[in-house]
Every structure is written in C-alpha cells, then in structure tokens.
Amino acid sequence: MSTFGSANTNPNKSYEVTQPPGDSISSLCFSPKANFLVATSWDNQVRCWEIARNGTVINSTPKASISHDQPVLCSTWKDDGTTVFSGGCDKQVKMWPLLSGGQPMTVAMHDAPIKEIAWIPEMNLLATGSWDKTLKYWDTRQSNPVHTQQLPDRCYAMSVKHPLMIVGTADRNLIVFNLQNPQVVFILLLVLKTEYKRVVSPLKYQTRCVAAFPDQQGYLVGSIEGRVGVQHLDDAQQNKNFTFKCHRENNEIYSVNALNFHPVHHTFATAGSDGAFNFWDKDSKQRLKAMQRCSQPIPCSTFNNDGSLFAYAVCYDWSKGAENHNPTTAKNYIFLHIPQESEVKSKPRTGATGRK
Question: Which UniProt keywords apply (predicted)?
C-alpha cells in the first residue's frame, strides 16, 4: 500500500473551516444564493456554515446542524436558497428549512440507502437515487413519489442540468434522461454498445461520479481507476469524445471522487483519493492547474454559486477498507480555496496536441 507523499494536510494553504464533522465527510454543497456551505458526514450529521470573505480573508461560522439516524451520504439545496435536502443510510430524505429555523421533516423514502439527491427547480421536484435500484421523483408536499423509475442497478452517481439528467449505477451503466419527458426518452447502456468496447474508457471500471455539461450537450464521468471520460450526446459530436488519466502517481491509481463545473467559466475540477484537486478545460483538452496533494483523500468538493470559492473535504474515504483507517490519527477537514482566474479560465491550447 502506498503512503501519501507528504504529511501536510493543507499543502495548498487553503482556508480551514471551523468545527468540521467528527467523521468522514460524504458531500458538500453551497447555497445557490449565498455563501452558506452544507456538509454531510458519516457521523449522522448535516452541518451548515456561513462563509464570509473579505478579499483573501475568509471566516467560517457554524450556523446550524441536524441529525439523521444513520450516516448521511448526500445533500442539495432548493434553488431559492432557503431549504436543504439530505439523504443517506436511514433510507430517508429530510427537508430542512434552514434559513427560517424550521424543523426538518421526512419527504422521501427508499428501501435501501439513498446515495444521490437533486432538486429540479424547472419541475419543482426532488429526485432521489438509491441502492434499491430506483430513481424517484417527489413533490415534497405529497407522501408518495410522483414517479418511480427502475434502474438497471444501484445508483452510484447523479447529475442534473435540466433537461439533462445523468445517472450512473453499478455495473458501469450510464442512463441519460430527458426531463422534458420524465419517462426515459433514451437510455445509453454504454458498456453494451460495441463501439465503446474499442476504447479504453472510464467505464471499464466502476463509475464514481458524473457531471452534466453546463450547456446540456454531454457529461463527464469519473471512475475508480483515475480516469475521466468526456462524452457528448449528439451523434455528430462523437468525435469530440475522449478520456484522460488523472489522480495517478508512480503506478498508484486513485479514484476520481468528484467532478465540478465552474459556474462562470465552465471549466471543471476533479478531486481524488490521491488527495489532489485539479482544474481542467475539456474544450482545449488541457489541465489548467494541478494542486499539491493533501495527506488524505478528497472524497467530495464543490464551487460556490459564482465560482469564487472551491470547497473540498480532506479525510479518510474508506477506499482502502476499515483495516487502513486509524480513528486516533485520522482527522476530518473542510478547506476553502480561492480559485485564481489563471486556474479556472479557459485558454487556447498550445504545444502538442492529442490526449493527455
């Protein structure tokens, strides 16, 4: 087993969020309206901080928290920035009217842990993906789902940019939904398509994360083998598809745990179990910035609503099993990085062409 090259938890000199969770962090999400950051954790808690930035000075103030009965795996905000949804191993989603100080209430249920969650403002519906092999759409005012979609396997990843929804499941299935018709308009089970067998694709190994393009023309997919695929939906743009390696070091291969598009420049970040996060430009096929590796994995990350802050968690991600987890030495951190324009703004490709 490799060790991380440095014992430095914060080699990029990011700002450390105060009072982090007591166990590994499973998701991070910023309010779409203000700098409120929510984190979910394996300690059964959902926490919110208010982030204040003045130039390069950042302050974080714990604002509120709620509890689930079991570890919490996913979170999202309502588009008006008033309400947080969280789901996890207790098989339920809680709706937390955070800004009004209201009490959380259960608004969705599954038969197995809920791995992914998304609020779809264009439909005024909540989407939940579970290990029970279903995707459900909920009107939060009703106790039953408005639609239940059977999935080919357990839900591992989900991303929505209306009308495009991408769901990644076990066994390397990727399902593409057109939400203008919530019944599936077309399903791409990519591993079954012969043309995809000819390329070394991220779908050769387990899907870890997906991210819909901001222009809804395609999606990114990241896998446990340190590879990202850039996929376009239009048949006429298939020649733009490519895969690239990342989060690898000295023959060690690490999972790509998070894919986040910058809300302004539409470049994207990857974060991995190697403890690094990088910024990329898919259109010029280049890495814009490689950040130094932290001493623990990065299981999740997110941009704030204007892209001026990038939040990432640094903690054990369980990818090497319980036997490699030392609770006495393992600490949990949430860091805030201020992206520089040179790190996240597209620039023309120079020099050699081809795949990275």
Answer: Repeat, WD repeat
Residue 355 belongs to some domain of the structure? no
Question: CATH number, domain at 27?
Answer: 2.130.10.10
Q: What is the pLDDT of residue 4?
A: 45
- Is 326 a member of any domain? no
Residue 351 domain-assigned (yes or no): no
Give the per-residue SS3 of the chain: CCCCCCCCCCCCCCEECCCCCCCCEEEEEECCCCCEEEEEECCCEEEEEEEEEECCEEEEEEEEEEECCCCEEEEEECCCCCCEEEEECCCEEEEECCCCCCCCEEEEECCCCEEEEEEECCCCEEEEEECCCEEEEECCCCCCCCEEEECCCCEEEEEEECCEEEEEEHHHCEEEEECCCCCCCCCCCHHHCHHHHHCCCHHHCCEEEEEECCCCCEEEEEECCCEEEEEECCHHHHHHCEEEECCEECCEECCEEEEEECCCCCCEEEEECCCCEEEEECCCCEEEEECCCCCCCCCCEEECCCCCCEEEEECCCCCCCHHHCCCCCCCCEEEEECCCHHHHCCCCCCCCCCCC
pTM of this prediction? 0.91
Give average pLDDT by consecutive 10-residue segment, the chain, 356 residues: 58 96 96 98 97 94 97 98 98 96 96 98 95 96 92 94 90 85 45 26 77 95 94 89 92 95 98 97 96 95 98 87 73 96 87 47
In a domain, 38, yes or no: yes
Give residue 28's domain range.
16-321+331-341
